[in-house]
Automatic annotation (TrEMBL), chain A:
UniProt keyword Lyase, yes or no: yes
Underlying gene: sdaAA
Pathway named in the protein's UniProt entry: Carbohydrate biosynthesis; gluconeogenesis
Name recorded for this polypeptide: L-serine dehydratase
Taxonomic lineage: Bacteria, Bacillati, Bacillota, Bacilli, Bacillales
InterPro entries according to UniProt: Fe-S_L-Ser, Ser_deHydtase-like_asu, Ser_deHydtase_asu
Organism: Psychrobacillus soli
A GO MF term: metal ion binding
Cofactor: [4Fe-4S] cluster
Reactions it catalyzes: L-serine = pyruvate + NH4(+)
TrEMBL record, chain B:
Family: Belongs to the iron-sulfur dependent L-serine dehydratase family.
Annotated metabolic or biological route of this protein: Carbohydrate biosynthesis; gluconeogenesis
SUPFAM superfamilies the UniProt entry points to: ACT-like, Serine metabolism enzymes domain
Protein name in UniProt: L-serine deaminase
Amino acid sequence: MEVLFHNVRELVDRANKEQKLISEIMIEQEILITGRSRAEIMAQMDRNLTVMEEAVEKGLNGVRSTSGLTGGDAVLLQAYMKKGNTLSGELMLDAVSKAVATNEVNAAMGTICATPTAGSAGVVPGTLFAVKNKLNPTREQMIRYLFNAGAFGFVVANNASISGAAGGCQAEVGSAAGMAAAAIVEMAGGSPEQSSTAFAITLKNMLGLVCDPVAGLVEVPCVKRNAMGASNSLVAADMALAGVTSRIPCDEVIDAMYKIGQTMPTALKETAQGGLAATPTGKWLEAKIFGGAVVSSGN
Amino acid sequence: MKFKSVFDIIGPVMIGPSSSHTAGAARIGRVARDLFGKQPTWAKIHLYGSFAETYKGHGTDVAIIGGLLDYDTFDERIKTAFEDAKKAGLSFEFIPETANTEHPNTARIVIGDDKQEMSMVGISIGGGKTEITELNGFPLRLSGNLAAILVVHEDRSGCIANVANCLAKYDINIGHMEVSRKEKGNMALMVIEVDQTVEEDILEEIGKLPNITQVTRIAD
């Protein structure tokens, strides 16, 4: 199969050489691979964007999962923001609350768009709908945000992994956060190289993150990891836009993530046998949930 | 390359909570139903690795049953698949296994009705993407680079030529093809990787050829 890029280096080089955005290279590759028209491809991404918008909206109105472990935190965060005394800033908390909103909807078996997975579906839309208020993008630029994120995710999925069962949470929320960082940079007017740097900085700081869901549910700690993934990507995007570079090239960071995932014990790869899942409270919650009782505490 | 489309990454649109354990599981179930060609009346689902450990929490079980009922990843009815199965006359059983498999998210689906039985192994490789690795004991070696069609047929002369001729008629080029059978004169399988998209009406035409049991398109 002929592709326009196999790794981030080739992606950035092609964008530079052809004076195109990374999102454009991704769109061109999709046309090349699927033979579908640009209009069809843009329309499909537009629909995915709508699903993301609806999930955020639903989560901000308040949802609760069947287990009772998650839900309602997005509402708390928005109410807190409205008081105007946030420490980390309004845009940051907006992104965090919208990432949380998406994952709360996911945990409640609502409709979401996987980016790149369901467990990590909050980071890309969360940051997008927060950055949107600052940068005032057109609808097309918002769709391009998803193509840029998709280009980086494409490299990770093919050269490493986006599966928590195969690579831990670093492969899911780590990848999602890197994708978001790269996309923020493009929307903010940064260069393809800066997108690559933002991805590298983000993933470097999520390396080693294990997948240890309590009771095997995509709730604790997944929802809050999406919150932190979103904040991580915003900081990394700002660092890249400021001109900070990554000593370790993006592709090598991705490769390191892959190798760490391979050597990670099975107990920490979505089997609910280690980490937070194996804590006394984690075990207690598991027994409560599958014993049929309703859990009323927060996560 | 396992992931070919940007929509493998930004997508699928799905019912939560897990792309691999819910959406991927639904897709595996749906391919099984497609390959069986009709609604089965019973299903035995063996789960391995992370599927076996966490299937209840991820809704893997309802998703697979939803897939067997022909629900897509974004179909809200996945949530009520167990009750729907009861109404549709599909009985099922989940069997968590301890054996190690090559991929952590593996399911062996054995389905049937009073006439036929079928066994299939599917793996969920992340982000909702799946692969079928075995069908009725035939290992499927799909490169994953091309779209493929699976043709289950009776082991009779002319079957392979008929299918190839039909594809040729529509200018569909075969990139790779494998034929296998269990026993002489019994059930056989063609795995055909093609360069072009095989439209639904062509699949139907192949399905109507003599001695063809079932035709399914996978790895779109």
